[in-house]
Write a structure and sequence with these properties.
The chain is built from five helices and 15 strands. The protein is an alpha+beta fold. The strands form four sheets. Strands 1, 3, 5, 6, 8 and 9 form a six-stranded mixed sheet that branches. Helix 1 packs antiparallel against helix 2 and helix 4 packs antiparallel against helix 5. The two termini are 33 Å apart. 26% of the residues are buried.
């Protein structure tokens, strides 16, 4: 995204030292009436004045493109990949890329050649589950002398999701057991006895699809068998015996991870949503996304 606002220029800590030096040089020149001291004073002041437009122009022609941000778990790091593109012909030096309000998320780009792009990755801790929007990216520069700094804001609307922190008992519930949370449901896997078909759920294995029916022009259907009925997990928010809703969500998130790792089919039931049983990466993220947005 292209910068939409003019850069804000402000003095740095080093600027105070420069003022002290200039005052000392002026005082020595005035008290001693020394021409050489005056020349040195005016030369130093001229160098400072010449550096001001260089500081402003150092952010000119820079474009920031924020790429897709992958979901992260709470208490882990959110990784924000982006590209800083220099659309001008001149090389830019010493550009600091930051996120507002997150001082720990910043990366200094020493040099951006003309007509080139530099990849930047910012990281910051994810504090709480939910869906968020990165409102802006900030560019800073104190090039070339460091007496003044320029800051430019670049608007962005990139969204990212933070999943609940996976915590609790990692042992998956068993049929008839009293483990935390979910019970098993009667959905199909693959076995010896054919039990019919059901609607295909996006993200589940395609080896159970009734391809003959598809060839006849029928919609995608999944074959059901009876031998592995007990292999499907039903993860239910109301069945987790924990009083804190956030702890329930963390426990369900952990079970989703473990069920996917074990290759099990699982469904998720929340008071506001229900996701049919399936497995695979799409189903995995769909369940975690529902947990992240739970209200």
């Amino acid at each position: 995204m292209k910068p939409r606002t003019l850069p804000l220029v402000y003095p740095t800590v080093v600027f105070g030292g420069l003022l002290f030096v200039l005052f000392a040089m002026w005082y020595a020149s005035a008290s001693q009436n020394n021409v050489a001291n005056y020349l040195l004073l005016f030369f130093t002041l001229a160098v400072f004045l010449v550096s001001i437009p260089h500081t402003l122009l150092n952010l000119n022609g820079l474009e920031v493109t924020v790429e897709s941000v992958k979901p992260a778990f709470a208490a882990k790091a959110v990784v924000v990949p982006m590209a800083v593109v220099n659309e001008s012909r001149h090389t830019r030096h010493g550009c600091l890329v930051t996120l507002p309000g997150r001082d720990e998320a910043g990366e200094l780009v020493n040099e951006i050649p003309g007509r080139k792009a530099v990849r930047v990755t910012l990281r910051f801790p994810a504090t709480a589950r939910g869906e968020y929007t990165l409102s802006e990216v900030q560019l800073h520069s104190s090039y070339p002398l460091g007496f003044l700094a320029a800051r430019r804001r670049v608007a962005t609307s990139q969204r990212y999701v933070v999943y609940p922190a996976p915590e609790g008992d990692a042992t998956l519930p068993v049929c008839g057991g009293n483990a935390l949370g979910a019970q098993l449901e009667s959905l199909a896997g693959e076995g010896d006895d054919y039990a019919g078909v059901r609607a295909y759920v996006p993200g589940e294995s395609q080896r159970h699809i009734d391809w003959k029916a598809v060839a006849r022009g029928q919609p995608l259907m999944t074959k059901q068998f009876t031998a592995e009925v007990d292999d499907v997990l039903r993860l239910d928010f109301d069945n987790v015996p924990l009083s804190n809703p956030e702890q329930r969500l963390s426990q369900l998130a952990l079970w989703v991870i473990e069920a996917e790792r074990a290759g099990r089919q699982y469904s998720l039931r929340l008071p506001s949503a229900e996701i049919p049983a399936a497995s695979g990466d799409a189903h995995y993220h769909r369940c975690l996304y529902a947990l992240a947005l739970f209200r």
